[in-house]
């Protein structure tokens, strides 16, 4: 009833890989960080933080965040100034 050999030749040829191709790539090179002293690790040092540093960092952060907030509000105010946009649109018409 079925020609099994014809089906095998049509749908399963020997040279067909069905998209499952193996790509051989060289391994990615990885260089460990080394100190000039020759010590391994290379990460940041873990020095204890003094008592006054957190307050200083907090003050710097607060000043920075208020400046960023004011800049953001200024940009938003300029962007969403609908009254000026309508006025400009009427002038252009």
From TrEMBL:
<dbReference type="GO" id="GO:0009966">
    <property type="term" value="P:regulation of signal transduction"/>
</dbReference>
<dbReference type="Pfam" id="PF04979">
    <property type="entry name" value="IPP-2"/>
</dbReference>
<feature type="region of interest" description="Disordered">
    <location>
        <begin position="16"/>
        <end position="52"/>
    </location>
</feature>
<dbReference type="GO" id="GO:0004864">
    <property type="term" value="F:protein phosphatase inhibitor activity"/>
</dbReference>
<dbReference type="InterPro" id="IPR007062">
    <property type="entry name" value="PPI-2"/>
</dbReference>
<comment type="similarity">
    <text>Belongs to the protein phosphatase inhibitor 2 family.</text>
</comment>
<protein>
    <recommendedName>
        <fullName>Protein phosphatase inhibitor 2</fullName>
    </recommendedName>
</protein>
């Amino acid at each position: 009833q079925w020609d099994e050999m014809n089906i095998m030749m049509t749908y399963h040829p020997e040279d067909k890989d069905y998209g499952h191709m193996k790509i051989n790539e060289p391994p990615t090179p990885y260089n460990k960080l080394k100190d000039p002293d020759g010590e391994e690790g290379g990460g940041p040092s873990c020095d204890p933080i003094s008592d006054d540093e957190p307050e200083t960092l907090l003050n710097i952060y607060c000043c920075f965040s208020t400046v960023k907030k004011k800049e953001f509000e200024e940009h938003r105010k300029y962007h969403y100034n609908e009254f000026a946009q309508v006025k400009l649109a009427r002038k252009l018409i």
